[in-house]
Amino acid sequence: MSERVPVLRIGDVLLVSIQMDLEDQTVMDLQEDLAERIVATGARGVVIDITAVEIVDSFVGRMLATTASISRMLDAETVVVGMRPAVAITLVELGLSLGGVRTALDLEKGLAILRRRSGLPDADPA
Prior knowledge:
Blueprint (H helix, E strand, L loop, with lengths): L6 E4 L2 E5 L6 H18 L3 E5 L8 H16 L3 E5 L3 H9 L8 E3 L2 H12 L8
Parallel strand pairs: 2-3, 3-4, 4-5
Antiparallel strand pairs: 1-2
């Protein structure tokens, strides 16, 4: 049995923090879990944190793009955060532009993008 990637809720946003190597079954489970959680919670945004991902290949790149497409079809915008420079370079070299996927340097900036673009309330109303 494959390990599952946790999907956490932060208000109207779901947070997916990838802390492991992604295998085919893990990705399929994540996509199914995330889609179910978007529908169940009515989430308007998804943040995929890849800070712990050091190496990517075309599989991981396609997974990010496909996951974002699934979320978008369920009315939730996706932002990928924490991308390392080497990961960005590798994705470009592989010809994977991650079309339709927003990126941000860190979680705070990713949440700010979602608040601006999706009309989510500010985290700190003060």
